Amino acid sequence: MSPHLTRKEKQAKTRSSLLSSAAKLICRKGISEASVEDVATDAGLHQGRFSTRTSRARRSSFLVMLDEKYAAELERLEGHAPR
Question: CATH assignment of 10-80?
Answer without folding.
Answer: 1.10.10
